[in-house]
Design a protein that fits this description.
Layout: E1 5-7, H1 11-27, E2 35-39, E3 43-48, H2 55-60, H3 82-92, E4 97-101, E5 107-112, E6 115-117
Antiparallel strand pairs: 1-6, 2-3, 3-5, 4-5
Length: 120
């Protein structure tokens, strides 16, 4: 990425979405496990070794107030709105995203941010 590239989006909403995704990954990753951030010019990937999300729950995690049964404890806190906010922001900004289990059963969220050259 060069200094002539810029993100074409609402920076405050994007910052909120990225913050919520990272905080959710950290919140639901056990002590001693890791959260990994990988980014390139066009894609941000967040991978965490947290709880494995299966089947129907993969479809529900972006719904408001949804929390997996095992995450209802006070240990994690939260309201079940974090990923719903992420979904809403990325939808408003028309940023494609994907959430899935990767080849090692870790939770993986990716989204693509488009860049354009600044007009000088």
């Amino acid at each position: 990425m060069s200094s002539d590239d810029e993100i074409v989006t609402d920076k405050n909403l994007l910052r909120k979405a990225i913050s919520n995704i990272i905080m959710n990954a950290v919140l639901y990753t056990e002590t001693g496990k890791s959260v990994e951030l990988n980014y390139t010019q066009y894609m941000l990937e967040i991978v965490n070794e947290g709880e494995i999300i299966e089947g129907e729950n993969l479809k529900k995690i972006f719904e408001p107030f949804f929390r997996m049964e095992s995450s209802h404890s006070r240990e994690h806190g939260g309201s079940g709105l974090g990923l719903y906010i992420v979904h809403t922001i990325l939808t408003i900004l028309d940023i494609p995203y994907d959430f899935r289990k990767n080849h090692t059963n870790e939770s993986q969220m990716k989204f693509v941010i488009y860049f354009r050259n600044k007009i000088k």
